[in-house]
Each structure stands twice: as C-alpha cells, then as structure tokens.
Design brief:
The chain is α/β, with parallel strands linked by helices. It contains eight helices and 18 strands. The chain is 30% helix and 24% strand. The strands form four sheets. Strands 1-5-6-9-14-16-15-13 form an eight-stranded mixed sheet, with helices on one face. A five-stranded mixed sheet has the order 4-3-2-17-18. A three-stranded antiparallel sheet has the order 10-12-11, with no helix packed on it. The protein binds fe (ii) ion.
C-alpha cells in the first residue's frame, strides 16, 4: 500500500467512483480518457475503484503487429503493461484521488504475474490497499476501512475480491472467487464485527466477475418483450431490476457459496461487478443489492447505453445511494462528442469503415469526374 492515511467521511458522506473495464492497450483510446477526466472532475470522489480488466492483457503482443513496435518477450509485455497503466493511473494521481483496484480476467492473460503488476500500482502515492499478506488469497484481495470524519470510528468497509485467474500452463482463464477467498472474507468479517462491538460493519464488495446469483435478476420472455437473445432464448430484466440488459450475464463458473457466506456475515449491502460491458443494472436478492456496471473501454465491445462510470454515496447511518453517469452525460450530446464516440468505439468499426470507404469512393468519383471534364475542355 502506498497511501497510508485513513479514508474518512467528509460532510457526512463518502463518495466512490467505480470505473469498470477500462481495458486497453499501450495506445489507450483518447475518448475513454476524456470521459474519465470529466468524471473525476465532476464527481470529485473520495476514492476511485477500478474493478478489473484495467488492461487488455491478452492482446499486448499482437496489437503491435502492424507497427515497428513489437512485443516479443516478458520484458516487452511488462513495458507495455506499464505504459498502459501509466496512461490510466496518472490522471487519478494528478488529481490526488486515492484509488483501489482488483484484477479481472484480462489483466492476468500474459506473462506478468498479478504480484508483478501490483508493484506497478504500488509505485503510485495514492494507491490504497494491495497490502494483505495472507498467502491463501491473491494480492488483489483485501479490505479498506472507511472512518468517521475524526477517524475514530469505522463506519463502512470495502471488500476487494479477486475473481479470475489465468492458468499460464493450460492457457485458460478461470472465472470464480476461490473457496479460500470466501473463507478469508468470513474470517476478516468476523474480526471487523468484533472490533465494532458485535455489529456487522456495513460494506460494499467489489469483484470483477458477477456472482452466479445475478442470473436470478433476469427472466425468459417472449421475443417481442426481450432485451437480448441468447442461444435461441429471449431474456429481459425482471420488473424490479433497474437498468440495461445488453448481454447474457457471464457469471462465475463455479458456485462456492460466496452469496450464502455474505448472508451469514450480514455486512454486505451491495456486491458490485464489472466484466459484462453491455450490462448496467441494479437489483436486490435476499436483502443484498447486486450491482452491475457497464464497461468504460472504447477498445472493446460495449454500447452507447452502458458506457459509463458509477457513483456510490455512503452515509453514516449504513445507507447508500448509487447512480451511473453515462458517456453522454459527461461529454454532452454535441456533434463533437458524437464524432468522438463514432471514431473510438469498437462497435462503430464496421460503420466507420463503411463510411470512410464510401467517402473515399465519393471523393475518387468527384476527382475522376473533374478530370474527365477538364479533358473534354
Ligand atoms: Fe472481464
């Protein structure tokens, strides 16, 4: 951990800005960075939380195929990761905003270990966490206490859980929270409860891969009412779930009893996910909110409905609010922001290619017609 000051409430509240899936390469797309700059300045959060897939780790090598910059080995990958993270983290550090992070599935898909990547984050003076030493869990599994304004009482706690790992031998990603991580959480939660006079400490839990229980928030429906189609079936959000369903939730592949553990501990008010870039919604199950945040990256798939950041406001009575601020909210519905979106968003690639091709063809025809006219004169 680089940031050693206590995180404290200010004026009766504590504000968190979540950035989900900013995943990009060494050449971070400018439109996302502009959107994030606007978000930091508009919200002025007390903490920025990066919930995984900070880099597109599995494409660090092939992204350079058409340039003189070729990544060939582990040293090259490390340099590429550092370059990408510097572009992502410098604007946060420059604003003196404390930030916390955990990993997603893409961060780990390269030769650089999580611990080696953590050392890059730890170079930042405003990096919070990454400080637990229990060898049974990954370095991005830790907790962050949030205190009252005078620093005397812990009012909230934030859980950061690792939920994905890449087997570098099998070359396969595994998406789940390990039983060891759940056991660590239960033990630590009990410690905090004891310190808090036997009362569970209100908590938010952040992890990259959605819990399997997320599937309880959607329902199969007729095609005419559907938000999505997956494997020939049609789905929508249930009526008491609010937001956008843009894809079938890609949840933890193994059920390890994490949600039951959260219910036993009684501390988690909401568990917050990224990973599914086109999904952005909130729903409640058994008294715990399941919060899905859309992806920020313009390099990867996404949608104009879901690209956003999410804000949490914590209150000293154990309550909280959450809302999202979309790309359009932050940038305004102006011709410039529309052109920026069109130019950088991956889902616009085909339309952009067609438009540029058509424009080139039209220009070629115009030049040809002009030359023919000149030839006749
Ligand atoms: Fe992911």
């Amino acid at each position: 951990m680089s940031y050693t000051k206590k995180l404290t409430f200010k004026n009766g509240k504590f504000t968190i800005l979540q950035v989900a899936d900013p995943q990009d390469l060494q050449f971070v797309r400018g439109t996302m960075m502009k959107m994030l700059d606007r978000a930091y300045d508009a919200v002025k959060p007390d903490l920025v939380v990066l919930t995984g897939d900070q880099i597109l780790g599995n494409h660090l090598r092939d992204c350079n195929r058409w340039t003189m910059l070729t990544v060939r080995d582990k040293a090259g990958e490390k340099l590429a990761i550092r370059t990408s993270l510097i572009k992502l983290l410098d604007p946060i550090e420059k604003r003196k905003l404390p930030f916390a992070m955990n990993y997603g599935n893409h961060d780990d898909m390269n030769l650089i270990t999580k611990e080696e990547q953590a050392d890059i984050y730890r170079e930042y003076a405003y990096c919070v966490g990454l400080d637990q030493t229990d060898p049974s869990v990954e370095c991005d599994t830790y907790n962050i206490p949030v205190y009252s304004e005078d620093g005397a009482k812990m009012l909230w706690n934030l859980w950061m859980l690792d939920s994905a790992r890449y087997d570098k031998t099998e070359k396969r990603s595994h998406h789940y929270v390990t039983p060891e991580t759940v056991a660590w959480y239960e033990k630590k939660s009990a410690e905090l409860r004891t310190r808090n006079g036997g009362v569970p400490v209100p908590s938010l839990m952040f992890q990259h891969i959605p819990l399997p229980e997320t599937l309880a928030l959607i329902e199969e429906c007729e095609r005419k009412n559907a938000a999505i189609c997956s494997e020939g079936k049609y789905y929508r959000l249930k009526s008491d779930v609010y937001g956008v369903l843009g894809e079938y939730p890609s949840v933890c592949e193994t059920q390890v009893g994490q949600f039951d553990a959260m219910k036993r501990c009684g501390d988690v008010r909401a568990v917050v996910f990224g990973h599914d870039h086109s999904n952005c919604f909130t729903g409640r199950l058994d008294g715990i909110d399941l919060v899905q945040t859309g992806g920020a990256s313009f390099r990867c798939y996404g949608s104009s409905k879901a690209r956003c950041v999410r804000v949490f406001t914590l209150y000293d009575n154990g309550g909280y609010d959450t809302y999202t601020i979309s790309y359009w909210d932050l940038m305004g519905r102006t011709p410039v922001s529309a052109v920026r979106y069109f130019w950088d968003a991956d889902e616009m690639a085909y339309i952009k290619g067609f438009t540029l091709g058509a424009a080139a063809l039209a220009a070629g025809c115009a030049v040809g017609a002009h030359l023919i006219r000149r030839g006749k004169q």
